[in-house]
Amino acid sequence: MNVLDVDCDAFALRAYDAAFALALAIEEVGMNTSFGFQKMNDSFNSTDLDTFKVSQHGLKLARVLSTTRFKGIAGDFSLVDGQLQSSTFKIVNVNVDRVRTIAFWTPESGMVKTLNSTNTSTLSISKKCNFGPIIWSGDSRYVPRGWEIPIKGKKLRIGVPVKVGYTEFVNVNKNHGTNTTKVIGFSIDVFTAVLSVLPYVFPYEFIPFENPDGTSAGSYDKLVYQVYLEKFDAVVGDITIRANRSLFVDFTMPYTESGVVMAVPIRDTRSKNAWVFLKPLTWDLWLTTLCFFIFIGFVIWVLEHRINEDFRGPPSHQISTSFWFSFSTMVFSHSNTPSPLPREKVVSNLARFLMIIWVFVVLVLTQSYTANLASLLTVQQLQPTVTEVKDLVKSGVHVGYMNGSFVYELLKEIGFEESKLKAVNSMEESDEALSKGSGKGGIAAVIDETPNMKLFVAKYCSKYTMIGPIFKTGGFGFVFPKRSPLLCDVSQAVLNVTEGKKIIEFENKWFGQGSHCEDNPNLSNNSLGLESFWGLFLIAGVASIIALVIFAVSFLYNNWHILNHAEYSRASKWRRVRAMFEIFNDKDLSSHNFKSSQQRDGSAGVRDEVKASPYSNWPGSPFSYEGQQSPYTTTSHASTETTPDTT
């Protein structure tokens, strides 16, 4: 019988060649030698294997066997270092009943496309070789992940929910004429995109979870439990990832936002009280602005007191003028041109520099205040009627939830009575119930998952707003059986889809461009705070301090000789300081402002307002002088008669 006629594999063929090679070696060794066997030496610790007899010519037989060469039925037989050398292999691709030759492998050339190839270099399998594609089971060109794909007419049974409302996620359409069912929706598009990312394909079919009359067969919990009962291989839809559900099934990564929120009506709360003019600014900004008005008025008074007649006179006049000058910057700018309004002008360069900065600060503040006040009085201010779910529990109002949703159990856990919970089935029904209100047989709020509520608020932007999240959830995910070999690959594919542009395209397709209403800015505090203007106040404060420092240094430098005069060495420090303050209270007749005024009045040669030393009239003071000029009086003043300042 020909051995090739026997149905055997490559290992059997190699075993036949090995037996043939052993026979050839025995023939060569046994021509001149008789074979005999002898028992090995016995020992105290010998085993059963030691009782076997061994050939006396084993080494010679092994040497002859290593040099045996012949062409066997499994290829060329050759041993090198006791290892059988591989011969040429044909690489074939077997797919169901089709067999395709991919390439050949030889020890000399490695992978080659044909046996007569002239390519003598060894090619690595990891390199890109143009040997044609490999088709795997399921007509996929990607390497399977090691699990059996149903390819013999078996399809994965994908359960989908039957919904009345929020059909943008899952919508089951039946054509009774053709007796076909079409399932569409956002969740279905995401699932289809996920399958396209997988490195393999598998057949599936959508099976609605419904009664014979076409209505829903139960809640989402019951639908998920069908996977545990092996009635469905998976469930696709707006299924929320929940801890109690994960006890029976596994979820993929979420493909939507997580959380439970509530949608409540909004109302116009435009301020109609007498104190609305205070709302554009926060209290800290009002207080800071007031302090800076007082501070700037004080700095201007210091800089202008000695050289400007407008900032002299009785103390009450000086204080009122300083405050008036500072606060008047809110309504008009300062200039030297005539005006029907009383204006004080500044003549000091330091004061002018400071006023440039302060007027800019006031300009920004007043413009911002005006714009915000106009917004408060004219723009519709929409505020939610309820901001906390606890308020709903305390007030005992009716609250809506989506029929069949797990939210019903959550609401009972936080204290809602069953009689206060009303099921709604669609966005239109929710809108109708919210419009009635709890007191008229409706509801005060509807509570559901974030994706549903965002879709609801997007449709009724002008009537409702979202509050929350009030609960945390895992978002929407796809359901698979426990330890499903598909779970890991599908979860990774979900991440690929949600991180790309496809998820945005699906949202625009099913929810529209305006699916996510912009957060209403009126729901937050409209008052302008100090954090928006602290930079301006910082600049004004630094400029004021710099102006004061420059003025103080200049004043002390010009009058330092008073304190260092030999006649004043016996005076106390307090009296010296008092003398400096009295000098500060005097007019600075050397100022160009007073010189110009005297020239206009024709009294340039008469110094009627030169004041004597502040110490000259002190009884018993060592600084009193009779018939002579004050030591700190300048030479230009020596020839004039000093009189007290009456201004």
TrEMBL record:
Membrane topology field: Multi-pass membrane protein
Locations listed in the record: Membrane
Segments traversing the membrane: 183-202, 285-303, 350-369, 533-557
Residues in Ionotropic glutamate receptor C-terminal domain copies: 157-513
Low complexity bias (residue ranges): 633-647
Family to which this protein belongs: Belongs to the glutamate-gated ion channel (TC 1.A.10.1) family.
Record note on quaternary structure: May form heteromers.
UniProt cross-references to PANTHER family, sorted A to Z: IONOTROPIC GLUTAMATE RECEPTOR
Name of this chain's protein: Ionotropic glutamate receptor C-terminal domain-containing protein
Lineage of the organism: Eukaryota, Viridiplantae, Streptophyta, Embryophyta, Tracheophyta
